[in-house]
């Protein structure tokens, strides 16, 4: 697929949206590497995707756990036809406690100085597995997933924005807990730190949508989704925010998307200053991790934040994960949460 600059991508998305032509888009965190392509021109030997049913995989899997209308092109046959014929090796080698502590303390220092209310701190964890990136893609079970040859695979449960019939929706996802813990649902919904973090992100996303839409409201607040992983089930807390776009929104799809980037859920608040803190504290380049990917089918747009992400570099695999840090955050809890998120949703 051809690589575009930010302005080239913005103009192309506007043009394709105005003409009602379907397209796929992949935008990295820094908005420096951007792919925009019409689906029939994508080489399936280089890129495979299944974005909420919009797919170039034969026998596409029709999955929807996040609620709402399922969007895209569908096939009634299941994608997953056979189990893996080998035992799965999955060895996690997280960043050291000392390195994470240094990054965490940098974030906390900035929060205490009033530079941020919430900062999303992420790490790159070395993982060893006997599965290829393509095998991980084909055997994973997620609302959104993509394989990009020799670069990355992701299987994300998080919606960025959806656009349909002139309405724009966002579903910020903040708050995770092991579903097997006693009274897990009550614990996550009543955790003061998690509640404050979620409220901050909802307020940030509501403000972001107000840049491009009118009548922005929080239509659902703090509901739970269950996510299956190779290590058991997780509960994830989300909210729904909705706004009304202008009548000619389809000719402004590029303007709309880039006005909302980077995603608030993986940066923090206030966004611009928090991005600088992220750059100072993190010890890896995010690349495509925490960027967005999605599609426009000629009428509707659906997109995801690229989390639950494995990057291939120098022949090794790095699983990138993290979480939101606030003044109430505990170092040990945040370190363990970062590791807990290093999973693959294999069946």
Automatic annotation (TrEMBL):
BP-aspect Gene Ontology terms: L-tryptophan biosynthetic process
GO molecular function, one term: 4-amino-4-deoxychorismate synthase activity
Entries under InterPro entries matching the protein: ADC_synthase, Anth_synth_I-like, Chorismate_C
Superkingdom: Bacteria
Keywords: Aminotransferase, Transferase
Enzyme Commission number(s) from the entry: 2.6.1.85
Chorismate-utilising enzyme C-terminal domain span: 98-341
NCBIfam families: PRK07093.1
Protein name: Para-aminobenzoate synthetase component 1
Lineage: Bacteria, Pseudomonadati, Bacteroidota, Bacteroidia, Bacteroidales
